[in-house]
């Protein structure tokens, strides 16, 4: 399992790698929040649950939707997240994001992610691992 | 020159035509010198999938496009549309495109004149920096001073800058000097999702982060005395510029309508060469719904900048003891928008839906949309440079009206990725270097500062020189930074 960011001139790419699709989604969420803050400083105190209906969405669309729901949640709750758990079945994605109230002095803020985009979007299995990536607009 | 199917020819100095090929219905028209064009062609040569010339080409494949797929001199790769892209579509037969507006709807710049000179500010430079940093909510996760309910957000979306004025966070005198008088008609708050509104509740009057900034500048050079007089600008006069947009609400509108327009693209069987170019016929219910949401987001940005301007005035009043009305709005422009405008196409007056993505409206003399005080000279075009160099105030022209639907560049454009910039510069060193040059900078995030290093950007003079030499927007004044607050 791993997450990383990748190069782009104006914005930033994020990527999650995992043994399962769900793990790749979890890791990508970590990558996205690592763009915003130092996630090592974010304690997973409180969990927020998100449910996304799968109907009409392919893996790519589901991935972008997952990330964008997290982006929205950070604004609404005022929290930053560092730990994620994702479960995907036929009907829905149920995700939990753990974190704490944003504290600029503690969390070392960098840039804000405005949205996950469809650019450089890839959700696929490669050599036995799942990769989920896209560009995020900062 | 011909590279991998792309055929470029210089039709007049610094104006290049991309010959239609593949799905293109019209040519591409790119404003750039050899260096700017070189950046574009290099990406094609090395086979880069994500490249601006390809995006210029792709926009020319969309139905109802008028005249050409334009690229301003600050052109670089974007999402679907290139940054610096302009696409005007027939309102009857054309489409409205998400990529032509983007996620930061109505991101733009407001510049205000003050009664202060460079000397006045230098005497209290650190004080001003600290006061602005304290007063202006900026940076990731920072909430604004105006906290609203969802019902009140609906008012913001309809009233725009007027909302902030009514709430005591602005001045009525500003409205005339904002594009659209700070309020575009036709907003439909119900077209904006509850999620978008929830995200915005604490964000009115916040600067945001990334490439957003508040910069106190002084007029270093005047290039057109007549226009500078109409703009009431003098050498050494201090101005202040804000760069930001519609914050979380605008972003969520982009996210929400991505899926919505993807479905519409399928429904209306519109062939798009890139998934990012999801769109709908402008006249369709889907197109109209998206447009009404865009207008709402445009108004949200107007309200946001008006509130920020008010807070800026407060800070200046505190430090210099000047009255708030001694800080007057020169103009406010948006550079990520789409609007219905009347333009002449092949001698006929037409209503067009004009998308400017990382491009500024640059209306020339005589246009009724611009303030009376500027009718003889054209509207100000505010072009952001970098915090270590300078920015420009240009004016719109008749040439721009004829050639680019009254459009021009918006900034220097990035050269280097954020990752590279962070590797190349340490924020602490940058701050010290800039201080040696007399520029005081304070940011809410160190990494963010490094990413915005002047060296990470292209040369704004190159971009402005092309605008000036081709005549689409001409130089009025060069302004240099003194105090910079970064989000």
Q: Any descriptors?
A:
heterodimer, A: 138 residues, alpha+beta, Archease, Possible Chaperone, Chain: A, domain 1, 5-stranded antiparallel beta sheet, 3-stranded antiparallel beta sheet, 3 helices, 28% helix, 41% strand, B: 487 residues, 8-stranded mixed beta sheet, 15 helices, 34% helix
Average pLDDT confidence of chain B is 94
Domain module count of chain A? 1
Any idea what the radius of gyration of chain A is?
Answer: 14 Å
Give the helix proportion of chain A (percent range): 25-40%
The shape of chain A, in one word, is: globular
Q: What is CATH's topology name of chain A?
A: Archease, Possible Chaperone, Chain: A, domain 1
* Multimeric status of the protein: heterodimer
Question: What share of residues are in beta strands of chain A?
Answer: 35-45%
Could you name the ranges of chain B where pLDDT drops below 50 across 5 or more consecutive residues?
Answer: none
Number of strands of chain B: 20
CATH 4th-level superfamily of chain A: Archease domain
Radius of gyration of chain B, Cα only, in angstroms? 21 Å
Largest sheet of chain A: 5 strands, antiparallel
Reported CATH architecture of chain A: 3-Layer(bab) Sandwich
Class of secondary structure makeup of chain B: alpha+beta
Description:
The complex is a heterodimer of chains A (138) and B (487). With 138 residues, chain A is of the alpha+beta class. Chain A has a single domain, classed as Archease domain (Archease, Possible Chaperone, Chain: A, domain 1). Chain A has three helices and eight strands; from the N terminus they run ββαβαββαβββ. Chain A has helices at residues 21-36, 59-77, 104-107; strands spanning 2-6, 12-18, 46-53, 79-88, 92-101, 115-116, 122-126, 129-137. In chain A, the strands form two sheets. In chain A, strands 1, 2, 6, 7 and 8 form a five-stranded antiparallel beta sheet that branches. In chain A, helix 1 crosses helix 2. Chain B is α+β, with helices and mostly antiparallel strands and 487 residues long. Chain B has helices spanning 34-45, 52-59, 118-123, 125-135, 150-159, 161-166, 194-200, 225-230, 247-267, 285-320, 398-404, 418-424, 427-436, 446-451, 460-470; strands at residues 2-3, 6-12, 15-18, 28-31, 69-76, 83-90, 95-97, 108-117, 213-222, 237-244, 279-281, 327-334, 336-345, 348-357, 360-361, 380-383, 391-396, 407-408, 440-443, 473-486. In chain B, strands 1-2-3-4-5-6-14-13 form an eight-stranded mixed beta sheet, with helices on both faces. In chain B, strands 8, 9, 10, 12, 16, 17, 19 and 20 form an eight-stranded mixed beta sheet that branches. At the A-B interface, helix 2 and strand 6 of A face helix 7, helix 9, helix 12 and helix 14 of B.
């Amino acid at each position: 399992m791993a997450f990383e960011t990748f190069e782009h001139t104006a914005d930033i790419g994020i990527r999650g790698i995992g043994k399962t699709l769900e793990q790749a989604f979890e890791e990508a969420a970590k990558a996205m929040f690592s763009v915003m803050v130092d996630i090592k400083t974010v304690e997973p105190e409180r969990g927020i649950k998100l449910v996304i209906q799968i109907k009409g969405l392919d893996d790519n669309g589901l991935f972008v939707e997952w990330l964008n729901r997290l982006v929205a949640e950070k604004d609404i709750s005022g929290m930053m997240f560092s730990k994620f758990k994702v479960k995907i079945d036929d009907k829905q994605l149920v995700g939990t994001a753990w974190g704490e109230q944003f504290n600029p002095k503690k969390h070392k803020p960098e840039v804000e992610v405005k949205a996950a985009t469809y650019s450089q979007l890839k959700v696929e299995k490669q050599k036995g691992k799942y990769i989920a990536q896209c560009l995020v607009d900062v | 020159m011909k590279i991998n199917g792309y055929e470029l020819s210089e039709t007049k100095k610094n104006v290049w035509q991309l010959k239609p090929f593949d799905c293109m219905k019209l040519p591409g028209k790119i404003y750039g010198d050899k260096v700017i064009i070189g950046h574009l062609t290099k990406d094609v040569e090395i086979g880069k999938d994500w490249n601006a010339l390809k995006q210029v080409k792709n926009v020319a494949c969309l139905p109802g496009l008028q005249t050409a797929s334009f690229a301003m001199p600050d052109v670089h790769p974007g999402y679907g549309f290139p940054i610096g892209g302009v696409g005007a579509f027939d309102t009857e037969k054309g489409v409205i495109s998400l990529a032509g507006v983007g996620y930061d709807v109505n991101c733009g710049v407001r510049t205000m004149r003050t009664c202060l000179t460079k000397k006045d500010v230098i005497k209290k430079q650190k004080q001003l920096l600290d006061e602005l940093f304290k007063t202006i909510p900026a940076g990731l996760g920072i909430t604004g001073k105006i906290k609203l309910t969802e019902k009140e957000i609906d008012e913001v979306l309809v009233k725009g800058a007027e909302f902030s004025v009514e709430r005591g966070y602005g001045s009525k005198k500003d409205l005339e000097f904002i594009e659209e008088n700070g309020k575009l008609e036709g907003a439909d708050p119900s077209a904006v999702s509850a999620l978008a509104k929830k995200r915005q509740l604490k964000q009115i009057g916040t600067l945001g982060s990334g490439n957003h900034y508040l910069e106190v500048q002084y007029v270093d050079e005047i290039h057109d005395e007549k226009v500078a007089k109409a703009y009431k600008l003098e050498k050494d006069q201090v101005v202040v510029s804000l760069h930001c947009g519609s914050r979380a609400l605008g972003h969520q509108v982009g996210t929400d309508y991505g899926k919505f327009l993807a479905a519409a693209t399928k429904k209306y069987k519109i062939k798009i060469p890139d998934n990012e170019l999801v769109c709908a016929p402008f006249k369709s219910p889907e197109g109209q719904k998206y447009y009404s949401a865009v207008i709402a987001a445009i108004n949200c940005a107007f309200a946001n900048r008006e509130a920020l301007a008010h807070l800026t005035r407060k800070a200046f009043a505190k430090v210099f003891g000047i009255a708030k009305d001694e800080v007057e709005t020169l103009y406010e422009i948006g550079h990520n928008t789409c609007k219905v405008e009347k333009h002449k196409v092949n001698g006929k007056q037409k209503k067009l839906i004009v998308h400017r993505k990382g491009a500024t409206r640059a209306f020339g003399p005589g246009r009724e949309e611009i303030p009376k005080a500027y009718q003889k000279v054209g509207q100000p075009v505010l072009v952001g440079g970098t915090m270590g160099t300078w920015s420009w105030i240009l004016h719109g022209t008749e040439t721009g009206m004829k050639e680019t639907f009254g459009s021009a560049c918006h900034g220097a454009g990035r050269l280097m990725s954020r990752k590279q910039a962070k590797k190349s510069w340490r924020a602490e060193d940058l701050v010290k270097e800039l201080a040696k040059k007399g520029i005081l900078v304070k940011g809410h995030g160190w990494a963010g500062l490094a990413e915005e290093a002047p060296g990470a950007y292209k040369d704004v003079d190159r971009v402005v020189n092309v605008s000036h030499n081709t005549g689409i927007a001409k130089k009025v004044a060069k302004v240099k930074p003194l105090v910079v607050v970064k989000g």
